[in-house]
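Can you give me the bound-state structure? Components:
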Amino acid sequence: MEKHILIGGEAGKGIAKTTLLISEVFTNAGYYVFNYREYQSLIKGGFNFNVLKISDKPVYSHDNSYDVIFALNQDIINRQEKDLKEEGFIIGDKNLKGKNMIGIDVQALLEKIGASAKLGNDILIGALAKIIGLPVEPVVKVVKGAFKKKIELLEESIIEGYNCVEKKMELDKPDGEPKYFITGNEAISMGAIVSGIDMYIAYPITPATPVLHILASKQEEHDFMVVQPENEIAVACSALGASYAGATTMIGTSGAGFSLMAEALSLQGISEVPLVVYLSQRTGPASGVPTYNSQGDLKFAVNVGHGEFIRVVVAPGDAKECFYRTIEAFHLASKYRVLVMILGDKHVGESNYSFDDFEEPKIKPTRCITEPCEDYKSYLITENGVSPRSVPGQGAVARATSYEHNEYGYTTEKSEEVIKMNDKRLKKLDDLKEEIMSLVPVNLHGQGKKLIVGWGSTKGAIVDALKDLPDFRFLQVSYISPFPAEEVKREIENSDEVILIENNATGLLGDIIAEQTGKIINKKVLKYDGRPFTSEEIVEKVKEAIK
Amino acid sequence: MKVEDLNTGEKTTWCPGCTDFGILTSVKQAITNLVNDEKVKRENVVGVSGVGCFDKIYDYLNINFFHALHGRSLPTMFGIKLGNPELKVIGFGGDGSTYAEGMAHVVHSCRYNEDTTFLVFDNQMFSLTTGQATPVSEKGLVTPSTPLGVHEKPINPLALTLTCGASFVSRGFALDIPNLTKLIEAAVMHKGFSFVEVLQPCISYHNTTQFIREHIYKLENHNTGNYEEAMKKALEWDYCQNENSKIPAGIFYETNKPIYEDQWPHIKKWHTVKRNPDFRKILSEFKK
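Here's the bound-state model for the whole set.
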């Protein structure tokens, strides 16, 4: 069973809230729900919408064919009714016009019970529940539970809406176990807290801002700080300062801000001050289409900053992976004193995913800060390249520097010292690569002989599409740098056919695969209109590509 | 502790006779005095520099030190205080890096008023890059990058920092080591953002030694708590070399205002915090 509901209207009319309430009713009852959000770069007006896919089996993506359109204005109907299924319905106020319209006289119902216009959406929520086949009690419970204060006539409004329409659909019974319902941004925030974050520093930018808001709201409860300095350059530089002083630090941004941070990220490379960066991609270049999705910054992340140094890039494919990959990012940054980037995007960051459970993370937070020994050297050359890290205030002099340096951290221009320090830093790759191999850098989904290769947020639509593409299996590359070349090469060589799927215009992972493995993937399914793939699109485009 | 304890043994690469040596001497003396007077703990002193001639001080001071990016001393200093508010942060900048590349940070550090000290080595010149004009170079100055002469009037860093809310604004002279030492000590002891402009003639590209010696005077009978008076004094010299220029030196302004760190109820020395997060509890709000 699958049901698709589109909830849309002007920004500022409660679309997000309505979506979350309906989702909660379903996830509480044990259904799996995926929620895709689409909105414009404006505060009020426009045509925002959310698409809910509800199923009794796990779902990781949305589709563009709706059983119900829940419309809060005419504009959303005009734009979306072409995608309403034959047997679907549009629910909205009686003044709206559309195909299979169930118009509700919201005003009259409110007047009947003496409720204010604010409760109009709740009348419609009641009606939606009835039409789609939900009982009324859990809806009342969830909506009431969403408000701290008791709201007069709230329950009556929902019931009034529920009773004014007829049931139109049947829902299969789910397993009954409530599900986790979480966005990628929420999961990254929680992953950071579980990692023992001390300091989150960020400048507002869509689509990374939710992490700034979420963590800011949690800082007192979990005892860490969230700071918003004057610009992204200050964000990255102050983060290095805080980390040097001993704080476990993360920063977050999107492409435009990441560009400004590039020089400081290069400073991370030579100073070896641990740093975790969350990069949430949106449609570029420059301001591009700022509230829409893209996987266009892959090669920028892998190459950010001048000079040669280790850049770890991990790209989670859903909210659950966001949680665990964030924990890995903190661990690797701290243990190897390297730059680790969590490469997400608007789609994985802002979509809600549902899961049965979260397993206990294997990695526990460790600071990797040592009490300094006598004759402490900040850049001691060790066998694996990792120098024991002391921080200021512990007695020994702790140095960090943007210049090439000797083991004490003093500036050097001497040929042999320049070589030694480069070698020391790059030596860390050996252990790092080995550890990343234990963190499952690639994942295989499905059994087919033909291969789909992709990364990041396309995972959901590809995995959901596999049931209609039985000849295919999906190789999800999660660690992009250092690149798991052998694993990727082997899968490509063992496949009758290989198709690259990316949410960008040129196939950036394909370039990296060619560079790292010598394998060129010629068949590409690319999408770059700012919208993520749906599973229907994947099925159609993949079939087209192998014709 | 002796002044020599702050030596590193690294070879100095400033030009022979560079006035930066005067600043280095003053900084070492000031830190030694503060440590010996038990006003600061040596292990808590952290230097921060950006990139320019001044930055070489990183190699000549045996203290904790973060040698950061060109023009980015201030945000790095700010971050260090966030990471551990117990540290005594002394930052260094040049007039080129500070007022060109990193100007936005000047405005905000004054506004944040975090408890740090910032010394700007002001020679009105980009010297390490072989002598180009900075935002503090005098109008008309001809350099290889400005053969037609600088078109603009120099900015006035003292008036700027006063306007932006700095709680300690001062000027010293690299060749007046005793007074500069006292000034640095006062700046470090001031609670809040302390701005110290150090006039530092560049003997290779912009040698104003003679001019400054002739026109500088020590601020006396000056009310450092009076903002209007401070601004008047700040505007007394326009950073150009006029016959009748008068260059006041000393503390222009000093006031007590809330510092950045004190406004965070939970700021602390983070690396000593022990954590044992309960992942299931942390995720519980996502399963209703």
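A couple of observations. The mean pLDDT of chain A is 96. Chain A touches chain B through 71 residues (CB under 8 Å).
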